[in-house]
Design a protein that fits this description.
Helix 2 crosses helix 5 and helix 4 packs across helix 5. The relative contact order is 0.23. The protein has one domain: Orthogonal Bundle (Cytochrome Bc1 Complex, Chain D, domain 2), CATH 1.10.760. The chain is 53% helix and 0% strand. It has 5 helices and no strands. Bound molecules: heme C (HEC). Heme C binds next to helix 2 and helix 4.
Length: 106
């Protein structure tokens, strides 16, 4: 388990170090699945979900922020802040989640 976690760390660091457009080839449908699996305990991730367990902002609210960009969210997810647990997110998963959140922007 420990070794696996270390490998994930290395991967995340490597991913964060890569430049280029994270939003490219992102799959919002996959992002939606990931959001339901990993994020829905704390965030309201879609309009069907009625409530989450914390005061974390719903994804639709995050998407509507004036400074929202999928790139920012993807980078944010590769280096989550302390209130959020770290996820074993790869670069493409972060991009897919970001694309999904972006798709909620109306
Ligand atoms: C354990 C609860 C928890 C889980 C699970 C969680 N989050 Fe969060 N998230 C939070 C909280 C709490 C905040 C608000 C933090 C703050 O305001 O400082 C937040 C904030 C955010 C933000 C806002 C950043 C900003 O700039 O406003 C994004 C984006 C986000 N989460 C995405 C995700 C994604 C994607 C997942 C699933 C991979 C996820 N979160 C899973 C608790 C969680």
């Amino acid at each position: 388990m420990y070794v696996v976690l270390r490998q994930i760390r290395v991967l995340v660091v490597a991913a964060a170090g890569l430049s280029g457009s994270l939003a490219m080839a992102a799959d919002a449908n996959h992002g939606s699945d990931l959001a339901k699996r990993w994020c829905a305990t704390c965030h309201v991730v879609n309009s069907e979900q009625k409530q989450a367990s914390t005061d974390a902002p719903p994804f639709a609210v995050i998407a509507r922020k004036s400074d929202f960009t999928p790139e920012k969210i993807a980078f944010f997810l590769l280096d989550p802040h302390p209130k959020m647990p770290s996820f074993p997110l790869g670069r493409s998963e972060a991009a897919d989640l970001a694309a999904y959140i972006g798709s909620l922007r109306k």
